[in-house]
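Retry 2 of 3 after timeout on previous attempt. Resubmitting structure tokens to design endpoint.
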């Protein structure tokens, strides 16, 4: 590229550019120093120069924007920059960036020269807002391609014009659904909604250079679109008649009111961002996009950005990035994975592996259990077809990747095997011995145990160095956390293989050291056990769960639940087994086994605390029978004391885990409990909440008071008093 009407590729740090035939400027976004593209002062300044050059040049007739990052179009705004501003309480630079983005995107949208974007990979937040400012959006069916405005999950709202452009593009109801939930939309859904104008099947280049990506079907289609638009006036296509009706002035108020109702139903008033986003949409839709962005959206964004809730949520997000960054990725990770045990967890794990392209050998000793497992996997995939996330052909390919078998020899070729058999130590040891007798010399065994230590399971292993823990949480598809458990004998290679697998499944692989209950279940046990003890004292099921839900437990899942609802979800037999196995930790892990056993009638399904969203009468009868046989005098208790009894023991156990080096840092505890048990993210995590709501030593004092009244299980660990957390 030469002469005054061209841009030298060397001019920019984060973009590569080339002018093609017929005056099409191809710009490749490739943020330097990061694995994903982000929008910040540096990258936006460069993009502004490219836009202005295209506008002013007589040579340039249109612009095509692509990404040179594999699997990522743009991750949105630079959250590290934003979190720095939140910690410094200085938002001037962020405000300037927002204003510049609004004016730049408006300039693109009003340009007589077409801007076409070719989206391949994740297109999130500010990245989607950048794409929406273009005249045409083309996308590919690449498995990593998706669209979302996830800002509400960070305690803010779309701040680069998203609340103004999206309703005009796809209609008010669909836009409010995306904006208030942060939900992910996949290419076929995006095409149906009108979020993109075209979709092609394209194989991305392994080498991401402008020269190579020009040959991709997606980029060629985008360039062709730009050439067509160069000869006709550029205008945004009108909304479909049905969407215009639902977005009209007469209906707008009702649609926004319904959206508010849905938000409050889902997350109550814990999160202000979705409600502010609805305000931004409703108030701005009657204005021009630029006016609505600057006068309505921007003030609401900056107010939310300055909130402690947003600071907590951004901090947790960055903690997740730290978890992923800290693991050693193995380039030649297993392509074939074995799963031993086809029960509920085993079938879910196998389904997730098949979705991500792994060949899976699913082994169980029972053909009937295998048949049910294949049925569960098929049902989960059918649901994705119905939602238009995948095609029926994708379902067939995924199901073909799962090979059920009753023979252990069929698993011998897998270089990594996940054990998910029943929680019985002798069974797990027998399966490990059987696997070792057939496996090739370097094969890794990852156990999904939730109650036994890795040392217990591998006590008789021939090659204990190949053993590692991979503790998935139920339901596997939704729960992002995986505890990767390392014992003293676990090899670096086994750990790295397990971490790589978890990361490729889209999970957060948090490395924890071996110990009873590992990290999450060990802390969770204090919460669940105390809830059962309070039921045994005669405190109502409704009251216990209401106190927990009013605190925000599991609100981020969209279904707030207290400890007794959680016990119903886990299943009492599993919960009782875990609580019993954790008795090795001492008197502080105390539960009412006799009460729980009343909930396990012989030959019948276990009782649940809740039934049809009401307290289960049979459960109440079981509690009454227990109390008659075990009378106790529990005096009146306030909600504050009930709250302390549920949550302060969790803080105590978290500090004990830090002292025992289960994990090294408090932020790891906060992250694990947020993503593992639904501790409310808006509170920043268990230890962050404790530090911010109580002075040093106050938790210990309250626990000592509880110990005097309720027993030794509340006695605090010494580190709580000396600030060792």
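Retry 2 succeeded. Sequence:
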């Amino acid at each position: 590229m030469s002469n005054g009407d061209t841009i030298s590729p060397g001019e920019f740090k984060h973009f590569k550019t080339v002018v093609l035939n017929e005056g099409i400027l191809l710009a490749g976004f490739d943020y330097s120093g990061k694995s994903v593209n982000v929008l910040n002062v540096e990258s936006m300044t460069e993009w502004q120069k490219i836009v202005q050059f295209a506008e002013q040049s007589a040579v340039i007739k249109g612009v095509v924007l692509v990404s040179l990052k594999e699997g990522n179009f743009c991750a949105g705004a630079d959250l590290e920059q934003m979190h720095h501003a939140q910690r410094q309480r200085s938002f001037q630079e962020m405000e300037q960036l927002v204003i510049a983005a609004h004016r730049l995107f408006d300039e693109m949208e009003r340009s007589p020269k077409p801007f076409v974007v070719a989206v391949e990979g994740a297109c999130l937040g500010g990245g989607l807002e950048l794409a929406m400012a273009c005249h045409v959006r083309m996308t590919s069916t690449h498995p990593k391609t998706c669209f979302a405005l996830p800002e509400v999950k960070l305690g803010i709202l779309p701040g680069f014009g998203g609340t103004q452009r999206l309703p005009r593009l796809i209609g008010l109801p669909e836009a409010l659904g995306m904006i208030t939930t942060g939900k992910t939309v996949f290419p076929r859904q995006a095409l149906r909604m009108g979020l993109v104008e075209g979709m092609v099947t394209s194989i991305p280049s392994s080498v991401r250079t402008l020269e190579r990506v020009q040959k991709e079907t997606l980029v060629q289609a985008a360039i062709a679109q730009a050439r067509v638009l160069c000869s006709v006036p550029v205008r945004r296509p009108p909304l479909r008649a049905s969407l215009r009706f639902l977005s009209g002035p007469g209906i707008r108020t009702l649609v926004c009111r319904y959206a508010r109702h849905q938000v409050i139903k889902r997350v109550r008033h814990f999160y202000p961002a979705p409600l502010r986003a609805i305000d931004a949409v409703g108030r701005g839709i009657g204005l021009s996009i630029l006016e609505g962005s600057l006068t309505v959206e921007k003030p609401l964004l900056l107010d939310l950005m300055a909130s402690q809730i947003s600071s907590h949520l951004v901090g947790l997000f960055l903690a997740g990035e730290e978890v992923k960054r800290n693991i050693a990725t193995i380039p030649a990770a297993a392509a074939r994975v074995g799963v031993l045990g086809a029960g509920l967890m085993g079938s879910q794990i196998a389904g997730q592996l098949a979705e991500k392209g792994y060949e899976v050998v699913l082994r169980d000793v029972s053909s009937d259990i295998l048949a049910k497992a294949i049925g569960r996997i098929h049902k989960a995939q059918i649901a994705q077809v119905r939602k238009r996330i995948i095609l029926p052909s994708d379902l067939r390919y995924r199901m073909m990747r799962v090979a059920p078998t009753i023979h252990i020899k069929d698993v011998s070729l897998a270089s990594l095997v996940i054990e998910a058999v029943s929680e019985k130590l002798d069974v797990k040891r027998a399966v490990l011995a059987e696997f070792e007798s057939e496996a090739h010399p370097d094969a890794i065994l990852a156990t999904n145990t939730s109650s036994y230590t890795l040392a217990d399971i591998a006590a008789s292993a021939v090659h204990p160095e190949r053993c590692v823990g991979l503790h998935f949480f139920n339901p596997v598809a939704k729960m992002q956390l995986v505890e990767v458990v390392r014992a003293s004998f676990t090899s670096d290679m086994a750990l790295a293989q397990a971490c790589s697998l978890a990361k490729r499944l889209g999970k957060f692989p948090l490395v924890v050291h071996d110990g009873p209950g590992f990290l999450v279940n060990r802390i969770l046990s204090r919460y669940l056990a105390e809830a059962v003890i309070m039921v045994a004292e005669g405190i109502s099921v409704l009251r216990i769960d209401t106190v927990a839900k009013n605190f925000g437990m599991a609100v981020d899942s969209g279904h707030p639940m207290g400890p007794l609802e959680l016990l119903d979800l886990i299943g009492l037999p599993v919960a009782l087994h875990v609580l019993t196995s954790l008795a090795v930790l001492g008197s502080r892990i105390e539960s009412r086994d006799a009460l729980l056993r009343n909930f396990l009638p012989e030959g019948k399904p276990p009782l649940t605390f809740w039934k049809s969203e009401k307290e289960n009468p049979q459960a109440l009868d079981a509690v009454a029978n227990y109390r008659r046989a075990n009378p106790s005098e529990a005096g009146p208790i306030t909600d504050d004391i009930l709250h302390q009894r549920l949550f302060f023991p969790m803080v105590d156990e978290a500090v004990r885990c830090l002292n025992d080096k289960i994990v090294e840092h408090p932020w790891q505890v906060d992250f694990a409990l947020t993503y593992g048990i639904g501790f409310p993210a808006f509170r920043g995590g268990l230890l962050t909440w404790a530090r911010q709501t109580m002075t040093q030593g106050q938790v210990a004092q309250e626990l000592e008071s509880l110990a005097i009244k309720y027993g030794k299980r509340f006695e605090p660990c010494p580190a709580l008093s000396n600030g060792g957390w």
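Attempt log closed. The chain has 31 helices and 19 strands.
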